[in-house]
Structure formats: C-alpha cells, structure tokens
Amino acid sequence: MSQPVRTRIAPSPTGAPHLGTVYMALFNLAFARKHGGQFILRIEDTDRKRSSTESEKAIFKALRWAGIEWDEGPDCGGQYGPYRQSERLDLYEREINRLIENGHAYRCFCTPQRLNELRAKQIANKETPRYDGLCLSLSPEESARRAKSEPFVVRMKIPESGTCEFTDELRGQVSIEWAQIDHQVIRKSDGFPTYHLANVVDDHEMAISHVIRGEEWISSTPKHVLLYQYLGWQCPVFAHLPLLRNPDKSKLSKRKNPTGIFYFRDAGFLPEALLNYLGMMGYTLPDQREIFSLDELIETFDIKRISLGGPIFDLAKLKWLNGRYLREKLNPAEVIDRLQTWKANPEFLGKIMPFALQRLETFSDFFPLAQFLLSEQPIYTHEDLVGKMEPDQPAKLLKIAEWELEKTSSWDRDTLSSVFQKMAEVEDLKLKQLLPLFFMAMSGSTVSLPLFDGIALLGPDLTRMRLRHALELLSANGQGLSKKGIKKLEKEYANRYGERID
Ligand code: GLU
Question: Domain-by-domain residue ranges, the chain?
C-alpha cells in the first residue's frame, strides 16, 4: 500500500453510546494496527439539535471502557485537527462554495410546503420521491441575489441516468443507478453541512485511506464517490461491514437486545470478553480460536476474512464467553479486584448506603436490600408484577414508561420522579397505585430502596432491560401487547402525552 493506512470511526454524539460503535471501532483499529497505521476518532456533530457534549463525553468513556484507544481525536488532538465537525465549518463552507462555482451544486429555495407536495405526488404516482430540479434552472446571478434575502439549502447535482460503480473491499464491484439517488442536500438552511458533505471533506482532509463502516451507508456511497470526483480528490478504499443482528435476524435494536455500551459495564461484563465477542461477529481467526485478545486479533487480522452474512449478537453466548474469561483468563484475586472496580467499591456502595441505612438493623440486611442494584435482573412472578391492577393495565403502563424514559435526557432522581408524576396524572392514577408495578419490575420487591433513587442508580440501560423483561413476562402470560396493540397505544400516547415519539 503506497499511502499510509489511516482509518477512523465517526460517531454522532446523539444519545447513548452504541454497541455498533465499538464493533466498527474494533475492526477499524485492528486494520490500522495490522498495517502500522493510525486510527482516528472524529465526532460528527453537525446535527445541532440532537448533538450534545454529554453524549460526546459518554462516547469517549464507553470506548475507553471497552478497551478501544485512538491515536487522534477531539480529546487528544493530532496534526489533522480539529476532530469535531462543528469546529470545521469554514472548511465545509469553502468546499460548498467551490462546488457551487464549478456548477456541481446549486442553491435550492423551494419551501418545505412545495417539497412535501412534490413528494406526496411522486408517492401517489409510485415514483421514487426525488427533488425535481426546479431550482437548477436559476441563473447564478439570480441564485446569488435571492440568497441575500431568502432561506435556502444547497444540493449536489446527480446525473439523470446511468449507474454509479464503486469497489467495496468486501463485496467487489457495486453498481447503483443514479435514478435512485436524490439531489442530496449538502448544506442545510441553518448553514451547517449535512453528513455527506462533511464526511467526505473530513475523510479527505484527514487523509483517511480506508473507510470501514456499516453496510447501512452503502446507499450513500454513490453520493460520496461523486463528491470526491467533483472536488477532484482521490476516493478512499471502502469496506462496508455487515450489521449486527438480533437472534431473530432483524437489525440489532434496543427493543430486542441491550445495545448501549454501558449496559454491558453495568450488568457486570468484562470489557475484554465483550471485545472478543465483537471480534467474532462476522470474523474468525485463521486458526478458528474462540478466545483471543485484541493483540492476537490484530496480529492475524485480514479484512478479507470478514463474512457478509449478518452476524447474530447473542447475549447468551456472550455470557458464556464472559464466564470462560472469568475462569480461564483471571485468577480469583483478579476477579475480586475486578468485582471491586465494578460495583463492590466505596463509591457505588456509598450511593446506596444513605437509603439502605434507613432500613438496616444488621449488616445482613444490606445485601438483600441492595441486591437489585447488584444483579442483572431481579426475579419475580407474573402475579407479583400485576398485583392489584386490571389485567390489561400493566403492559400499557410499562410501555408508556419505556417511551417516556426514552425522552428524558438527564437521569437523576428529580427528573425520574417528574416522569412518573406526569404518568400518574395523565393516567388518572394516584402515585401509590402506579408505583408498585414499577417497584416490582425494577427491584423484584415492594420493599426496596426508594424507587426513583433506585432507578437513578440502575441507569438507563439496565432500566430499559427490566421494563422489557416485565413486558415479556406479561406476554408469556397472555397479557402482553400485540404489534397492533403497540401501534394503537402509540397513537393514544402521542395524543395524551403531547409529544410524538420517533
Ligand atoms: N456519523 C456517521 C455515523 O454516525 C458516520 C458514518 C461513517 O462512518 O461514514 O455513523
């Protein structure tokens, strides 16, 4: 390879750090290391509404917990910085202007209303919704004049016909018809670039040699290839990895699997076992070894060995592997050490103690009280869960709680308390009628620590899994929600709770 190898991951800091980010990071890191290259972390925060500093910090923390280290990034710098897109706006503006000047992009002044009507018409005619190019006919002078007083976006031009061909390291030649591709917006009306433009500019400016990312980006690649061409730059090598799947083969989703990296930390997994397991997703070492370290993966890494069948992320298998790590890779003293780092430490126990203390007579009372915070899932029966509620009530309430908690950005006692207060109000229930269900789902008991403090300590990932477990238990006993039931509830929920869920 003539050019030095440089790979990157480019997560967007929107929401909780995702398992898929570690998975992509692992293969990018392994490839870069194998070829003596660099691995870069870039933060793609051009979506101003959804990006947050907390989420960015959580990404750093989650990746480091998982054992991923980067050579260049927003926190450690590097010669191609800044590594946060919101700090690179001048660069994007320069290239957008160059694209406009060279006739590869144009300003579009169409109103959202016109675009909606166009879309509706195209859908009704069974056509692929696509911008019709109305603003393409504006002269450069008129476009520049209107830009002074009207809001606009910038779109890239897309050929009318023909196909885009590019090579994917894992798939060989890929062809996608241009007719399927829209005149992509590359600069939004708020002046920020879109993902496509910023991603291409940065991969070029940061001298990324190999773009190794998830297969959901294949359909975007023609736009990227075209942008490289328009800008007169050489394309990096593309390799699109298969996406992780749930055991039922659907795309890995938090509804069916834990997907937040912190779930694995909080539920007591070893990061090295998680990394090992992710290394087995679509990949096998030449000697088929099942237990391997990051260094061992790097030593023999060959990107061509990645298989394209969707790898199944199976929690039960990960647990089995984690158990082997505990027994084969660590000695008892090390396990004790790791257990302390996990939750058996003064800091974590110190958060529980103030509440537990109210109920302690002897030390023996402590662990039973704290047990729900130290286990992955408490045990209870279906009858325990339903308690005195009407049979169809618990599933609805659990589902609504899942949606409401999804919307909460801060995870502290007071915020959680207000979520449940609101639920009680909307459902016309007293808090003491509502809460026993959640006490049981969260702690497996009605006499545990105060609920909101408990949920705050559990964290969003474990909480979500517990709600899900409770819903599954109801389904197994004929009191769950059908797909249709969920759809109906979703509509009701949107009306009654006043906000749309995505
Ligand atoms: N910001 C994109 C993401 O969140 C990056 C995709 C890419 O690697 O090109 O996944």
Answer: 6-85+245-327, 88-235, 382-497
- Reading phi first (left if > 0) and then psi (alpha if -120 to 50, else beta), residue 77 is in left
Q: 332, 338, 328: which is closest to 289 by C-alpha?
A: 328
Identify which of 217, 224, 241, 259 to mutate to test ligand 1's pocket (most ligand atoms within 8 A of the CB). 217
Q: Is the Cβ atom of 213 under 6 angstroms away from ligand 1? A: yes
What's the pTM value of the predicted model, to 2 decimals? 0.91
Q: How far apart are CA 437 and CA 427, in angstroms?
A: 14
Distance from residue 25's CA to the centre of ligand 1 (Å): 11
For residue 145, the CA-to-ligand 1 centroid distance in Å is 35
466 with 472: CB under 8 angstroms? no
Model confidence pLDDT, tens digit, residues 200-247: 999 999 999 999 999 999 999 999 999 999 999 999 999 999 999 999
Which among 166, 169, 165, 164 is positioned nearest to 7, based on CA atoms? 169
Q: Which atom of ligand 1 is nearest to the CA of 195?
A: 1
Does the domain made of 6-85+245-327 have the CATH classification 3.30.365.10?
Answer: no
Q: Which of 6, 12, 192 to mutate to test the pocket of ligand 1 (most atoms within 8 A of CB)?
A: 12
CATH architecture group of domain 382-497 = Orthogonal Bundle (1.10)
Instruction: List the residue whose alpha carbon is closest to atom 6 of ligand 1.
Output: 10
Q: What is the pLDDT of residues 27-39, one digit of tens each?
A: 999 999 999 999 9
Whether 403 has a pLDDT exceeding 90, the answer reads yes
Q: Judge whether 275 and 25 are in contact, CB under 8 Å.
A: no
152-192, pLDDT tens digit by residue? 999 999 999 999 999 999 999 999 999 999 999 999 999 99
Whether 305 has a pLDDT exceeding 70, the answer reads: yes
Q: Just give the CATH number of 88-235.
A: 3.90.800.10
The residues assigned a catalytic role are 254
CA of 99 to the centre of ligand 1 (A): 22
Q: Which two tokens stand for residue 43?
A: 């933060």
Decide: 44 in ligand 1 pocket, CB within 6 A.
Answer: yes
Of all protein residues, the one whose alpha carbon is nearest to atom 3 of ligand 1 is 11
